[in-house]
Each structure stands twice: as structure tokens, then as C-alpha cells.
Write a structure and sequence with these properties.
The chain has 306 residues and is an alpha/beta fold. It has helices at residues 28-35, 65-73, 88-97, 112-121, 131-140, 165-168, 191-201, 214-223, 269-272, 277-286, 297-305; strands spanning 10-14, 18-19, 49-55, 58-63, 78-83, 105-106, 172-173, 184-185, 255-256.
């Protein structure tokens, strides 16, 4: 058990009480070179070995093992260590701070300044890319909260190709954030509710909204007088916002339909287009509208919506 008084302290311990992992840091040359300058009797190592204490007075080195090995090779009997708690989070922090494991940021949640700084760090490896543009495209990317890899970066149209993903993985990783789905009624939702719903949908893997202008889509739906009567999602594909029939999949998770009853005088083009020609003619006769022989369905709809 860890001695509580030792947590965070620098203490001097016998080298024989400190164990190193099989994959200890440092090459043979590095250890030999360091040991040659650590020959002075009772020399103090000013950079401590970072250890945990799984058993009383028995230590496990988790960082700076090369210092321990060099001190041992130099014939020293004691080494100064810094004791940290025996838990995974403490060990991870130590290894991040000492550069033993790569320091990356989660592209799903990173703020603009962090994204920009990470790209600046890679500037020499990214060629002539406009770093500010790339950072903005990443930050504004719809659905990045749900990315499980860096592949979506290649669809942002800012010069990021598949060949650059390996370089980007030096500073970015992708850990999707929890996505809370709160379905709304497509027929009556506000513009803000629609936009929020589409931004959520963009995070779902089954929804393919990368090339869809979500702001324009939400505005177009909100402005449509006929959406009160929609009983399917097909009208969304006619709003010229990049939403094609193949991209409707998955929208039913965030958009529910609750159409209003048709008006007494049905002049709603969407509803009329769903009707048979015979029913359209009956509708016209009821309104005392003359129906020419051989009239086509589209012409009937125009008559009834006039």
C-alpha cells in the first residue's frame, strides 16, 4: 500500500527497491553515456525517477527509467524518486507530461484556438494549406461531435486528403461525444429547433449530411407553408439545400411527422399531388371549376391551387 506521507514527495530510496518495466526507456548507448557522468560518490540525480508504490517500500518506475538504469550502471546505491498515486489516471498524466505517449486533442470537442494551434504545429508537414481556412472548416464541420475517425476531414474541401491523415493523427484523435436525441415535430418546429435537430442528425453515423447546408435547410423548411401537411420526408429533397433521397435515411430518429388535417378548401399543392386524377376532377367539380377534356394531372393541380 502507498505510504500517504510519500505522495508527491521527493524521497531517496535504494535502487534495488525500484523495479523497471520490460520496456524501459533509453538505449544502451544513452544509459552508458549517462552513467559515465554519474560516477561521483553519493551523487544526487536532480531529475527524479517517477514511481508508484504497489507494496510498502517496493517501487515501480513509470517514467525516467533511463535515469534509474544509468545510476545503477554508475554504481550508485540510491536514487531520488517522486512518488505518485497508484492509479491509471496519474500514470497517464505522468506519461503525457514526459512525452512517453503522444499528446493529442479530441477533434470532436476541440475549440477553434486549439485546432488552429495543433495545425500550426504541423505547418511544416502540411505544405501550402491555408491553416486558418482548415481550422475554420474543422471547427464549423457539421457532425464532428460524432466522428469516430479522422476520415471526415477529407470531405471538408480545404485541401485535406487521405495522404495527410497520418500527419494529422500526430495531434488529433477522434473520440465521439455522447449524443442526446430529442425528436421534434417537423411540421411545426421553429427554425432554431430544426437547425439544432439537423446538427444532431449530422453526428449520427447513419445520417449523411456532410454536403448539406443545414442552416439553409432549416430556414427553407420553416418558410414552407405546406410543411404543416407533410406526411413523409420527400419534400425535403425539393428544397435545393443538398438533401437528396439517399440522405433521408436516419432522419426519422430526430424528425417526427404529425401532419395537420387538410384545409376545407384544399389548395395545398403537396396534398393535391398525392391524389388520383379522378379525385382531383371531383374536387374541381365541387368547386364549380370547369375541367377541360384530356387535362393532365399537373394542369389539374395548377387549377386547384390557383
Amino acid at each position: 500500500m502507498l505510504s500517504l506521507k510519500d505522495i508527491g514527495q521527493l524521497i531517496q530510496v535504494p535502487i534495488e527497491q525500484v523495479q523497471v518495466s520490460d520496456e524501459s526507456q533509453g538505449s544502451g548507448f544513452q544509459i552508458a553515456a549517462l552513467s559515465s557522468i554519474l560516477q561521483e560518490p553519493d551523487l544526487r540525480n536532480w531529475i527524479p525517477v517517477i514511481v508508484q508504490e504497489p507494496e510498502p517500500r517496493q517501487y515501480q518506475a513509470i517514467s525516467n527509467e533511463h535515469i534509474l538504469l544509468a545510476m545503477e550502471a554508475a554504481g550508485q546505491e540510491y536514487v531520488w524518486v517522486a512518488v505518485v498515486p497508484e492509479d491509471a489516471s496519474a500514470e497517464e498524466q505522468v506519461k503525457l507530461l514526459t512525452g512517453q505517449i503522444p499528446l493529442t486533442i479530441n477533434i470532436c470537442s476541440a475549440e477553434y484556438d486549439m485546432i488552429f494551434a495543433a495545425l500550426q504545429h504541423l505547418r511544416g508537414k502540411l505544405g501550402k494549406l491555408d491553416i486558418a481556412l482548415v481550422a475554420d472548416r474543422i471547427y464549423q464541420a457539421a457532425g464532428r461531435r460524432g466522428w469516430s475517425s479522422l476520415t471526415p476531414l477529407t470531405k471538408l474541401k480545404c485541401g485535406l486528403t487521405k495522404s495527410k491523415l497520418q500527419v494529422l493523427s500526430e495531434v488529433f484523435d477522434a473520440a465521439p461525444l455522447p449524443i442526446e436525441i430529442n425528436p421534434i415535430i417537423l411540421n411545426t418546429a421553429s427554425e432554431a429547433e430544426l437547425l439544432e435537430a439537423f446538427e444532431t442528425a449530422a453526428c449520427l453515423p447513419q445520417c449523411k449530411l456532410v454536403d448539406v447546408n443545414l442552416t439553409k435547410l432549416a430556414s427553407a423548411i420553416f418558410s414552407s407553408k405546406e410543411r404543416l401537411y407533410w406526411h413523409d420526408y420527400k419534400p425535403l429533397t425539393k428544397l435545393k439545400c443538398g438533401l437528396t433521397p439517399s440522405k433521408l435515411k436516419g432522419l426519422d430518429q430526430i424528425l417526427h411527422l404529425k401532419p395537420c388535417a387538410p384545409p376545407y378548401l384544399n389548395n395545398v399543392r403537396y396534398l393535391l399531388e398525392q391524389m388520383k386524377v379522378s379525385d382531383l376532377k371531383k374536387e374541381a367539380i365541387q368547386r364549380e371549376i370547369t375541367v377541360p377534356k384530356g387535362i393532365k394531372k399537373a394542369e389539374l393541380v395548377d387549377l386547384l391551387t390557383a
